[in-house]
Amino acid sequence: MAGMTHRVTLIPGDGIGPELAEATRRVLDASGVGFEWEVVDAGEAVIAEYGTPLPEHVLASIRKNRVALKGPITTPIGEGFRSVNVTLRQALNLYANVRPARSMAGLESRYENVDLVIVRENTEDLYAGIEHRVGRDAAESIKIITREASERIARYAFDYAVANGRRKVTAVHKANIMKLSDGLFLECCRAVAAEYEGRVAFEDRIVDNMCMQLVQKPEQYDVLVAPNLYGDIISDLAAGLVGGLGVAPGANIGTDAAVFEPVHGSAPKYAGLNRANPTALILSGVLMLRHLGEIEAAERVEDALRTVIAEGRTVTYDLGGTAGTSEFAEAIVARLEAAPGRTGGSRRPAASA
Ligand code: NAD
User: How many CA atoms lie within 13 A of 225 on its CB side?
Assistant: First the structure.
């Protein structure tokens, strides 16, 4: 609730995660909102101590606090342990992954006026992790689509549209080829859409066509709802429309907990160099502030960030500047401190995250 101290689990992550987490914590603390950060680690570095990259006490901390801010965590490619990020979402049943992509003044991009929100199903599809080798020269991955999860994510997308004054939901699928699995997803979206008729428009697009349409005329789209894999790919595409991965935030929402994290990964080649852009994690923090009911502080942080980006003097390499991660964050802190607002705000429904 606004006005109180919020206890939040902070998972810095690895790669560029820790430096981004530090920068984001500085900015959020400067917003005037009271935070008590419970810092816990996950990922490869903790395996030696706990025998797993996602120790039980990390999950317990999030279950207790119900809110976490998380940096990216490296996943070994083609071998090794299962993605901590995916396991976390499944273990806490964070069924909705909400990824806004909005144009910002000062961001180098081919497009203006992009304002998309990707609502990605977060618990099943090819991310169920059911794979096996068939002999030496073949492998199978099983795609799981259920009515329960599909209706739940469609309803989340429509509720989000209503709560945030959005006009249209577009379902993304490949039901022309995967007639049973994607066919069921589309059937569920259509059924839920009927309940919102007259309030929110509905349409569907085959995923390949969706990609082309987003590149050609992104301004025609609004809220997109997709199964897990298409949602992941389309959200990187959408990030590219508005200035890249460095500025794309995300929220993983469940009924009992919410974890806020950027779309991007741990970018190991920039780790420890004070070069990575903290915007995506800071904007994930803004989504978290809204989720916590700290609407006024969320707006102040976002305004300060947008002003620093629009001025273009103290931004990171990916935005055409030469500032480091920490200098960028300090410029935002300076703006917040120059125009302190009152703390607190009114509560918005969780769907606004
Ligand atoms: P990535 O997002 O880490 O990086 C891709 C490229 O995007 C980088 O090389 C960099 O050029 C740019 N970039 C990303 N974040 C940036 C930032 N904050 N500032 C400036 N530039 C930025 O993707 P990847 O290289 O495919 O993945 C690296 C690792 O991250 C993998 O192990 C992957 O599994 C993991 N990953 C984790 C998450 C997560 O924690 N939720 C998400 C995606 C990928």
Answer: 31
Q: Is the CB of 318 under 6 A from ligand 1?
A: yes
Q: What is the dihedral of CA 296, 300, 303, 304, to 10 degrees?
A: -170
Closest-lying ligand 1 atom to the alpha carbon of residue 267 = 3
Query: Rounded to two decimals, what is the model's pTM?
Result: 0.92
Residues 176-209: tens digit of each pLDDT: 999 999 999 999 999 999 999 999 999 999 999 9
Question: What band does 81 get if pLDDT is binned at 50, 70 and 90?
Answer: confident
Strand ranges, E, within 48-207: 67-70, 96-102, 115-121, 131-133, 139-141, 168-173, 201-206
Is any ligand 1 atom within 6 A of the Cβ of residue 319? Answer: no
Q: Ligand 1: does its nearest atom lie under 6 Å from the Cβ of 153?
A: no
> Cα of 266 to ligand 1 centre, how many Å?
5
Q: Tens digits of per-residue pLDDT, 311-329?
A: 999 999 999 999 999 999 9
